[in-house]
Specification:
By secondary structure, the protein is mainly beta. 7% of the residues lie in helices and 56% in strands. The chain has helices spanning 2-21, 114-117; strands spanning 24-42, 48-54, 57-68, 71-81, 95-101, 104-112, 140-144, 154-164, 171-178, 192-202, 205-215, 223-235, 238-251, 254-269, 272-281, 291-292, 295-296, 303-313, 318-329, 349-360. The radius of gyration is 21 Å and the shape is globular.
């Protein structure tokens, strides 16, 4: 692994010189993000636990080459780095090759789906343990195929193609298709997905709508869908955002649905900002007897999550922050943090208090 990273760095270094001579560019970038957490689960033998957690630290390389007539070749290689354990991977995050022009951008590879990216910026705690993915989107899949993390609608998908439209009067669209390359070992079916978003930005407002469909994920000939609407409004140092979402799964024992919503607010105070987020997941509905991800059908299966935090910018690239988050599960609910799960049983209530440091380069 160390040898591969060294070879990649060396290759990108020589590539940077070569592309500079050919009016291209190469950029090395990254994010190192970690926190010391004190976690507990009420009513659990876990008790109190102090741990060092990674918040999706990354290192990446991206570049482009002008091809003439406004056309560009674009590429990116991005990998995850675990600050707490030292583990890593060269290209398990947003990695692509494609073309960009006046008509938009098209590319293939591993990439965050439009449904996820449409509202990720509405959560001031994304992507930490306190992220809204515990309730919104039903979990988080940092690198998924059609056969892994089949419950999550917050996902980065392998083997896909995406198209991004150019922005027109503040309006833009994205659409992605996950190709049918996997075969389900039990049913023999070949799953696939479609994901899309439509966004508009104007003045203090940002509006978005997103939809995603998974085919043959739960069973053969099944369809899972997710739909959401989001809005954010900026006024001076204050910003508020809201998201409403509906998830639907086709399981072997029938339909399973659930509604959820999320509110967040930030307020800048000099070099710092106060942050708050609140999510509410309603009870699961439908005849399904399955548990899909964090939820199932029935009474007392709802949950809420409240997160409070403060972030202080030490520079343009470095920030120190703290947050507290608690999930309040109802008697039969089993929601857990989507990143750095603790492990909960029905009705238990996980919480986390963290102090973190983030540096971007």
């Amino acid at each position: 692994m160390k040898g591969a990273v060294a070879a990649l760095l060396l290759g990108c270094g020589s590539g940077a010189w070569a592309q500079a001579a050919g009016a291209g560019s190469v950029t090395v970038y990254g994010r190192v993000n970690t926190g010391i957490e004190h976690v507990r689960v009420s009513g659990s033998e876990l008790g109190n636990l102090t741990r060092l957690s990674n918040y999706r630290s990354v290192i990446g390389f991206r570049g482009e080459e002008a091809l003439g007539d406004g056309l560009k070749a674009i590429w990116q290689i991005e990998g995850g780095v675990s600050v707490d354990t030292g583990a890593g991977n060269i290209a398990n995050r947003d990695t692509r090759v494609g073309l960009s022009g006046p008509w938009g951008t098209v590319f293939a590879g591993v990439w965050t789906l439009p449904y996820t990216s449409a509202t990720a910026g509405f959560d001031p705690f994304y992507p930490t343990t306190a992220g809204y993915m515990a309730l919104m989107g039903n979990g988080s899949a940092p690198n998924a195929t059609h056969l892994s993390d089949t419950s999550s609608f917050d996902r980065r998908q392998a083997n896909q193609v995406q198209y991004w439209s150019p922005k027109w009067k503040g309006l833009s669209a994205r659409i992605a298709h996950g190709l049918r390359e996997d075969t389900h070992p039990d049913t023999g079916s070949k799953p696939s997905l479609w994901s899309g978003s439509l966004s508009w930005e104007g003045g203090p407002w940002q509006l978005t709508a997103a939809h995603e469909r998974h085919h043959n994920y739960q069973t053969a000939d099944s369809t899972d869908t997710a739909s959401k609407l989001g809005a954010a409004w900026q006024s001076g140092p204050a910003r508020v955002a809201a998201v409403v979402e509906r998830l639907r799964y086709g399981t072997a024992s029938g339909e399973l649905t659930r509604n959820a919503w999320y509110l967040s607010g930030t307020y800048r105070l000099g070099a710092g900002s106060l942050r708050v987020g609140y999510a509410r997941a309603a009870e699961g509905k439908g005849p399904s007897a399955e548990t899909v991800g964090f939820f199932r059908s029935g009474a007392d299966t709802g949950a809420s999550q409240l997160t409070l935090g403060y972030e202080h910018g030490l520079s343009k690239r470095t920030a120190l922050y703290a947050f507290y988050s608690r999930i309040r599960n109802e008697r039969a609910a089993i929601y857990d943090f989507a990143i750095n799960e603790i492990g909960v049983a029905a009705g238990q209530r996980p919480s986390v208090l963290a102090v973190g440091l983030r540096h971007s380069f």
